[in-house]
Amino acid sequence: MGAGITGLWQSLILAQNGYSVRLIERSPKPFAQASSIYAGAMLAPYCEAETALPVVKKLGIKSLELWRKHFPETVFNGSLVVAHDRDKGEIDRFARFTDGHRYVDRKEISNLEPDLSEQFQEALFYENEGHVDPEVALPRLLEAAEQAGVSAEFGVEDFAPPAASVTIDCRGLAAQDVLQTLRGVRGERAIIRISEIELARPVRLLHPRFPLYIVPWSENRFMVGATVIEREDAHPPSVRSTLELLSSAYALNPAFGEAEILDLSAGVRPAFEDNCPRIILDNQRIYVNGLYRHGFLMAPALATLVERYLTSGEKDSEIIVEDRSQW
Ligand SMILES: Cc1cc2nc3c(=O)[nH]c(=O)nc-3n(C[C@H](O)[C@H](O)[C@H](O)COP(=O)(O)OP(=O)(O)OC[C@H]3O[C@@H](n4cnc5c(N)ncnc54)[C@H](O)[C@@H]3O)c2cc1C
Q1: Residue 38: CB within 6 Å of ligand 1?
Q2: Residue 73 CA: distances (Å) to CA of 27, 140, 161, 240, 285
Q3: CA-to-CA distance for 222 and 214, rounded, in angstroms?
Q4: What separation in Å is there between the alpha carbon of 199 and the centre of ligand 1?
Q5: Ligand 1 contact, 1 CB (< 6 A)
Q6: In the chain, where does the domain assigned CATH 3.30.9.10 lie?
Q7: What is the CATH number of domain 5-72+132-181+274-326?
Q8: Atom 49 in ligand 1: which residue has the minimum CA distance?
């Protein structure tokens, strides 16, 4: 249940491993009610380790292989982390909390990202990270799942699972009806378009108050994101957040000032208390939820954990839990 990034990867991996899969989604239009459509969607296990638990990095690295294998369009150009000279200490702090990076100087920055060479003296380069454009990746994953034999049904409100089937519940925040510790974390973003600037990879701009990032998508579009606010509404971004988002693009390169604004919107990330995902076993139902800022990063690896559990009973002790009433 649920055709966001979690449900799509579950369906694909299970169908490819010989299971008969129905994918049930309540929204008539694919992805219209999924938080997944708001994602960056960076695949950044090393950078995210700055704040995430170690298991996120471990499973994220596993997911990179799966993206490479099942979605050849995934871009693996790494990520760049920059800060203005006055915030240089932020670079060293970020470097201390993460690995998989190397320091690059102005010359190398201009090789990697010619359009940023004027602004930054030093950066961190995480060469093994990737990213996708969610507006391309989500429909392609759905297509791949259908080709693997998944029957996808949209606009299904009340689904009664047939006896002797297993339901994998990937309803994101809607599973709050059962999972009482699940909360929503609002993320605001802007999508802008400009043909005069090119970036090959996501760039994170460190700042003591509002660290933000910009992800290059197809057709000269850039996703500028994202705020992290402990609220569950998806109202349009506030003026303050919009100023912060757009200022960070402008700070990366003032030429972004000429970009068209295509979209200003907010999504709500499903998260447990420790911002770490869980696979929760509950008789014939398995909940896969709490992917927080890491839905694209974690969904492939979580799908293989569920497949292994169903096939061989193997339980990853860090992620798979059994007492649903605790969650
Ligand atoms: C601004 C922003 C930026 C982000 N950037 C990144 C990033 O760079 N990298 C990254 O890895 N992650 C990122 N994320 C996080 C990522 O988007 C989430 O972790 C992910 O979307 C969670 O996916 P999901 O499939 O679990 O939930 P959802 O995408 O919300 O999907 C749940 C689906 O279940 C459906 N559903 C609900 N109830 C029912 C029902 N009763 N029956 C059937 N279907 C139902 C819903 O309609 C929905 O389609 C970002 C999120 C936001 C908001």
Answers
A1: yes
A2: 26, 10, 34, 35, 33
A3: 6
A4: 26
A5: yes
A6: 79-127+184-271
A7: 3.50.50.60
A8: 34
State the distance from the centre of ligand 1 to the C-alpha of 36, rounded, in angstroms. 4
* Digit-coded pLDDT (tens) for 170-220: 999 999 999 999 999 999 999 999 999 999 999 999 987 778 999 999 999
Across 29-42, average pLDDT: 97
pLDDT tens digits along 113-163 = 999 988 899 999 999 999 999 999 999 999 999 999 999 999 998 889 998
DSSP assignment of 57-79:
HHHHHHHHHHHHHH-TT-B---E
Domain with CATH 3.50.50.60 in the chain: 5-72+132-181+274-326
Q: Average pLDDT in the 75-81 region?
A: 98
Nearest to 35 by CA among 75, 9, 60, 6: 6
- Whether 290 lines ligand 1, by a CB cut-off of 6 Å, is no
d(CA 9, CA 31): 14
Q: Closest Cα to residue 23, out of 149, 184, 181?
A: 149
Q: Whose CA is nearest to atom 18 of ligand 1?
A: 295
Q: For the domain made up of 79-127+184-271, give the CATH fold.
A: D-Amino Acid Oxidase; Chain A, domain 2 (3.30.9)
**pLDDT confidence of residue 26:** 97
User: pTM to 2 decimals?
Assistant: 0.97
Residue of minimum CA distance from atom 21 in ligand 1:
36
Do residues 20 and 149 make contact, with C-beta atoms less than 8 angstroms apart? yes
Q: Which position has the token pair 């990179």? A: 64
For residue 35, the CA-to-ligand 1 centroid distance in Å is 4
